[in-house]
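It would be a great kindness if you could assist me with a short task in structural biology. The matter concerns a single protein, recorded as an amino acid sequence and a row of backbone structure tokens. Could you please explain, in whatever detail you think fit, how the structure tokens follow from the sequence? Thank you for your consideration; the sequence and its tokens are set out here:
___
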Amino acid sequence: MTVTPIGSALPATGPGPERGRAPGIETQSDYLTFLNMLTVQMQNQDPLNPMASTDFAVQLATFSGVEQQVMTNQLLTSILERTALADLDGWVGMEARVPGLAWFDGGPVTLSPDAAVEADLATLVVRNAMGVIVDRRDLPPDGSQVAWHGIDSDGMPLPAGRYSFDMELRSGGTLVDTVPVPAYQPVREARRDGGQTVLVLTGGLMVDSAQVTGLRAPEETGDSQGAR
């Protein structure tokens, strides 16, 4: 999943799953069905060659074992679901390091580029939501964090909105690579979606938690260099 904007409002939560029979009621129903089938089997057996009592005991023991395994699986599933929901609390309120996209709301955006080990010059390229380049400036190639204050190349303040960040890497004046620049963004909400943890960031941006490469508390801002 890539980071994508979802607009100014989050989608409304849909109706909950349809209520079904409780697991205990379903298991009890299956057990009664088994007993009915066993009774019919006893009533229709050959009177000259009746089934041994040990065979009935084996069938009862087998069904009981299956029943216990089903109940165990249901219990494990319930525990895993509760554990997954509990893990979501650990994301909310933290700042996640996500690649290449951030929401600017007037405050500085902390950029956390990777070190450009194969380049001698690194250039930050900032684009607005329309893909238009609004800022270009040099970055330290050693991977130091920088604070982008929403100022364009002419020194004019930019409006709040979604911005993307890339880093052009040059060696000997030749462009060798262009890579996304990760940014730290506050996590406003965490959801479970299809077995994945989806994070809702400031501005309604959404990202798969698997793309997060760093996590920190909001107060751990550090002394970033300015990218004004």
Remarks:
- Residues 53-88 form the longest helix (36 residues).
